[in-house]
Amino acid sequence: MVLAAGALTGVIAGCGSSSNKAATTPSPTLAESPTPGPTVSTTPSATPSNTATATVSTGAKSASCVNGWVQPAPGSDFYQQATQALQQSQGGNAYVVKKVRYFAGPLPSGGIGAVYYLDVQDPRLSARVLLVSGAGPASAAIARSGTTGWKDGDWHGFKGTDPAAAVSPLPGIPSPGKWSGPSYDPVGGTTPLLSPSLTGCLDGS
């Protein structure tokens, strides 16, 4: 999977832990040209409208979630950006998404990244999905539905350097969707996808 035309670049500001802070946080916007994977630009959006910043709930800042997290309301900018990134990664549209969460902060690879978490309940893809943008190649990870948080053994990561292709069924994930490999362990492996200051942003997810 590739989250920009070949790579994701730039720095994304962290999201706040309240709806007021979320309203002033620049949000990643999707590039116009389709690619094999989701394409995210790091250009800040125009001044957000009330719809753009609407949230269902938020998570407080903590040592393991440095900027807190936002659960955007359906129809808001964050929600639409997340679902559009998912659609671009899979080459389809109108996926059934149960929940979206957005957070941002430092990445293990360096720099600041923006993260979209989606709980997807669709015949074409039924899994918990993480889409991560930052400097360098984009990354993604999926876990079976019914799991929670960021636990070793639950998640399968994809580095986004190979052409996107349908993934064979994984343990507990009969419909894992279409991703760009190679695959790897994003939690307990030598190159974790999330830093310790972001892993708590998935608590209760």
What is this structure's SSE topology?
Layout: H1 19-23, E1 29-30, E2 40-41, H2 50-53, E3 55-59, E4 69-72, H3 77-90, E5 97-106, E6 112-122, E7 125-133, E8 139-143, E9 155-158, E10 165-166, E11 178-179, E12 183-184
Antiparallel strand pairs: 1-2, 3-4, 4-5, 5-6, 6-7, 7-8, 8-9, 9-12, 10-11
Give the key terms.
two-stranded antiparallel sheet, eight-stranded antiparallel beta sheet, disordered N terminus, mainly beta, 205 residues, 11% helix
* Strand fraction: 25-35%
Strand segment tally: 12
Question: What's the tally of helices?
Answer: 3
- How does the helix and strand content classify structurally? mainly beta
Head-to-tail CA distance between termini: 23 Å
Number of domains: 1
Shape: globular
Radius of gyration equals 15 Å
**Major sheet details:** 8 strands, antiparallel
What is the residue-mean pLDDT, rounded to a whole number? 77
Order of strands side by side in the largest beta sheet? 3-4-5-6-7-8-9-12
Order of helices and strands: HEEHEEHEEEEEEEE
Helix percent reads 10-25%
List low-pLDDT spans: 1-51
Description of the molecule:
This protein is mainly beta. The chain has one domain. The chain is built from three helices and twelve strands. It has helices spanning 19-23, 50-53, 77-90; strands spanning 29-30, 40-41, 55-59, 69-72, 97-106, 112-122, 125-133, 139-143, 155-158, 165-166, 178-179, 183-184. It has an eight-stranded antiparallel sheet with strand order 3-4-5-6-7-8-9-12, with helices on one face. The protein has a two-stranded antiparallel ribbon with strand order 1-2. Strand 7 (125-133) and strand 8 (139-143) form a beta hairpin. The chain is globular, with a radius of gyration of 15 Å. It starts with 18 loop residues before the first helix and ends in a 21-residue tail after the last strand. The relative contact order is 0.19. Residues 1-51 have low confidence and may be disordered.
